[in-house]
Amino acid sequence: MASRTHDPEPLLTPAEVASMFRVDPKTVTRWAKAGKLSAIRTLGGHRRYRESEVRALLQGQIPTQRQGD
Amino acid sequence: MASRTHDPEPLLTPAEVASMFRVDPKTVTRWAKAGKLSAIRTLGGHRRYRESEVRALLQGQIPTQRQGD
DNA sequence: ACCCAGTGGGGTAATTTGGGTA
DNA sequence: GATGTCCAAATTACCCCACTGG
């Protein structure tokens, strides 16, 4: 088994996610605000995104979960 | 900066594909709906197209799904 | 402490979607 | 059957400036 420390979950910056979807980084921010994409906040308020989730979203395997409706 | 070996697939917007084919963006949308062109969806529902596929289509290297011929 | 590319927040154009129609 | 146009609504892109990340 691995040690008791957490596995280093690969995180992506807004710009990286934006380039993967061919959208503006601001758009990725809107997705996070809308709850379509879970974001991890830095202590300074910047957002980081889980690479695994982003890739799953790109493959369309996640039923585009929306919050407000 | 996140110096991750990141190979984002180049994607094209509907307008870009439309100008490449000299057609209306709406027509490109119809091609995607008809399955003639694979499309990746943004979380907001907009379509993005693979540049490699579009270029191959432009060169006629992909046997378009046509019935008899 | 300085540098500076990237990001957040807000607001406003531009593009895209989807249906119906020519 | 395939493409272009009109319309309303939704989504996205670009503009500002202040702050964060390395």
TrEMBL record, chains A, B:
Q: Where is the Helix-turn-helix domain?
A: 11-61
Q: Which Pfam families match?
A: HTH_17 (PF12728)
Gene3D superfamilies according to UniProt: 1.10.1660.10
Protein origin, superkingdom: Bacteria
Q: Which SUPFAM superfamilies does this chain map to? A: Putative DNA-binding domain
Question: What's a Gene Ontology MF term here?
Answer: DNA binding
Supply the name of the protein: Helix-turn-helix domain-containing protein
